[in-house]
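Hey L., structure's done. Input below.
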Amino acid sequence: MMTENVHNFDAWIRSRFCELNTALENLYFAQERRADVAGVGSDLKRALCLEGQEHIRKLVQEGNTDEGFDQAFNLLGNVGFYMAACNRHGVTEQDAGPAAQMREASALALELGANLGVTPRFATSHLTTHNFALQGRYKSFTSLEDEYIFIDYNTIGILAYKRAADALLRLQPMGVTHPVATSLLRAAKAALDEVIESNAELFKKLDVERFFYSVRPYYKPHAVGFQVYRGANAGDFAGINVIDLLLGLCQSRQSSYSQLLVDKFLFMMPNEQLILRDCMRQPNYMDLFLQALDAGHDSPAFRRNLALFVQVCQAHGQGSSMHHDQLVHKYIAKPADDLPPENHDKLTASGPPLPVLLRALQNLRDQRAAVQRDDIPTRYADLQRLQATLAAWEK
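Output:
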C-alpha cells in the first residue's frame, strides 16, 4: 500500500506535473527558435520545481522507502520524472531559488537506486513496461499526442522483443537439432516481425518536430548528486541483447559490445540483469548450427530449424536497420543539423557527442544485420554459409 505522501506525489505526477510540462512545451514550440528555453515560462518553471520539491520534502522526512520493490521502483520513477523535467526546462535558482539545486530529490533518488540495484534516475521501464495505468491513462511527461505515440509503440516493440528473447532462451536446454525447436524459432520470428510492424507504424505517425523538440529533451543526461547519469534509452532492457547474444550476431567478448552491456546494466530491472549475465556465458546458436553442419546433420527437422534460424537473424537485422536508418537519422540526426551551434550541447540521451553516438549505432546495426565489414567483426561469412547450405538443399 502507498503511504499518503507517496500517493499524493504520484497523483501530482499524473496531473499537475503533466499539465505544467505541456504548457511549457507549447510555449517553446510556438517560438521561432524552439530549442531556446531560457527565460520562457518562468512562473510555470517555478511552480513545477517548488511543488515537486514540497512533495519530495515530505517523502524525505517520512523516510518510508521500503514498501517493497514495486512501490519503491514506482517512487523512484516519479522522482526521476521530476528531476528530468526540471533539467529539461533548465530550471535555475533564478527561477525557483535553492530548490533548483535538487538536493532533496537527489538524496531520495540515490537512496532508492542503491536499495533497488538500479540507476538513481528514471529509466525506460518507468514509462513503458512498468507504467501502471489508472482508468486507461498511464504516466507521461506531457499530454502531447506525439509523446503517447512514442511511448505506445516503444512499449509494443519492447514487449515483442521480450517474447522473441523468451522463445530463444527456451531453446537453450533443447538444442538446435531438436524437432520441437521449430516451434520456438517460429515464435521468435513472429515476435520480431511485430517489432518491424510496430516500427513502421511509429515512423508513420510520429511527428519529427514534436518528437525532437518536445519529447526527446526529457530523456537527456542530468546530474543526481555529484554524478551525471546518461539519459533513458529505448534499448534499456535485456531482451534485445539476449537476442544479439543467443543468435551469435554480437559477442560479449568484443570490447565495444561489452562496453554497451556494462553501460546499460543498471538501467535494467534487476531480474533482467541476472538473465543477461547468464546469457553472456551461454553458447550461441550460430556456432551450434555451424557445428551441426560440420557433423553432417541434415534431417528434415534440422533443415526446418536452420531455415527458421536464418529468418530470425534476418528479421532481427531488419528491425535494427529500421531503427537506425529511420528513427535515429530522421528524428535525431537530421533535425540536429538545423540547430544553431550553441544548442549542440547535450544533443544525445546517451552522453557522447552525436557523431560519436551515430558511429557506434551504425556499427551495432551492421553487427545485428551481419553486414560485411572489414573494420569490425560481423557474422556475414557465417550467415552466408548457412544460406548457401539451405540453397543447396533446395536443389
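The first helix runs from residue 4 to 14. The two ends are 65 Å apart (CA to CA).

-- N.
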